[in-house]
């Protein structure tokens, strides 16, 4: 009786495990299918270029405005340079992070073409309280352009920027070293000229018969060494006394 209950319990556990395995298998297949679909649909996607990004606009705003036209995969906005940021701060008073241009990737090329054709030179709209409500879209579809091309272009720009910065740093270091060497040379020449002037001055005073100030020499008195026979009551030691004393030690 105990064995029958144990067998039935083990059979139930095996059934539950098999059911769980069957449930989990389709999920893994779905994940693989989704990854394969993303890889396969890379050629079907379309990219639109934004030649101007209004102030206060960020990627979340663009996704919110353009998601109604179609599915969006990725968005990249290029940050502005320091000079443009300074001009925006002075003219508009905008102290946030600004963007100069951007790229938007749609899941389908047809959607990207339709969005560019429909929204180019049109009012952005949206909420009336938004700061870019009255701005205009500057959007263009890029044919035969992929997101990988954009990544490669950004990487090359960053590489060139880093090389330029390293060159500027090395040039600044060379200028600094040259400046310090010139300062040292000028100080050395100044010291030599001062010594020459002092020498010429002393020689001129001697030639004119003028009294040249003598240098002060400090005299140090020393005591004379004590000679033998200086003391009257000096004891007379026998010969060989010092040798005998030294032999004891």
UniProtKB/TrEMBL annotation:
Q: Where is this region: Disordered?
A: 1-39, 190-233
Cite the entry's keywords alphabetically.
Nucleus, RNA-binding
The record's listing under SUPFAM superfamilies reads: RNA-binding domain, RBD (SSF54928)
GO annotation terms (biological process): endonucleolytic cleavage in 5'-ETS of tricistronic rRNA transcript (SSU-rRNA, 5.8S rRNA, LSU-rRNA); endonucleolytic cleavage in ITS1 to separate SSU-rRNA from 5.8S rRNA and LSU-rRNA from tricistronic rRNA transcript (SSU-rRNA, 5.8S rRNA, LSU-rRNA); endonucleolytic cleavage to generate mature 5'-end of SSU-rRNA from (SSU-rRNA, 5.8S rRNA, LSU-rRNA); small-subunit processome assembly
GO-annotated cellular components: nucleolus
| Pfam families the record matches | RRM_1 (PF00076)
Q: Which GO terms describe its molecular function?
A: RNA binding
Annotated localization: Nucleus, Nucleolus
Q: Where is the composition biased (Basic and acidic residues)?
A: 1-23
Give every RRM domain span: 49-128
Q: What InterPro entries does the entry give?
A: ABT1/Esf2, ABT1/ESF2_RRM, Nucleotide-bd_a/b_plait_sf, RBD_domain_sf, RRM_dom
Q: Which PANTHER family match?
A: ACTIVATOR OF BASAL TRANSCRIPTION 1 (PTHR12311:SF7)
UniProt record similarity statement: Belongs to the ESF2/ABP1 family.
Name the record gives this protein:
Pre-rRNA-processing protein ESF2
Q: Which species is listed as the source?
A: Rhynchospora pubera
């Amino acid at each position: 009786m105990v064995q029958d209950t144990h067998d039935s319990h083990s059979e139930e556990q095996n059934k539950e495990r098999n059911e769980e395995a069957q449930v989990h298998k389709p999920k893994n297949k779905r994940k693989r299918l989704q990854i394969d679909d993303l890889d396969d649909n890379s050629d079907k996607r379309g990219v639109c270029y934004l030649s101007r990004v209004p102030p206060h606009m960020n990627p979340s705003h663009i996704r919110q405005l353009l998601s109604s036209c179609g599915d969006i995969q990725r968005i990249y906005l290029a940050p502005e340079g320091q000079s443009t940021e300074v001009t925006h701060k002075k003219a508009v008073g905008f102290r946030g992070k600004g963007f100069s241009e951007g790229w938007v990737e749609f899941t389908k090329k047809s959607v990207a073409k339709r969005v560019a054709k429909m929204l180019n030179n049109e009012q952005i709209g949206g909420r009336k309280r938004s700061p870019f409500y009255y701005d205009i879209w500057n959007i263009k579809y890029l044919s035969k352009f992929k997101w990988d091309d954009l990544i490669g272009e950004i990487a090359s720009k960053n590489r060139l920027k880093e090389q330029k910065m390293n060159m500027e740093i090395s040039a600044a270091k060379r200028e600094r070293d040259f400046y310090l060497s010139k300062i040292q040379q000028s100080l050395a020449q100044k010291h030599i000229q001062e010594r020459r002037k002092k020498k010429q001055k002393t020689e001129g005073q001697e030639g004119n018969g003028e009294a040249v100030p003598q240098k002060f020499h400090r005299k140090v008195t020393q005591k004379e060494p004590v000679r033998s026979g200086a003391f009257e009551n000096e004891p007379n030691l026998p010969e060989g006394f010092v040798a005998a004393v030294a032999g004891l030690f």
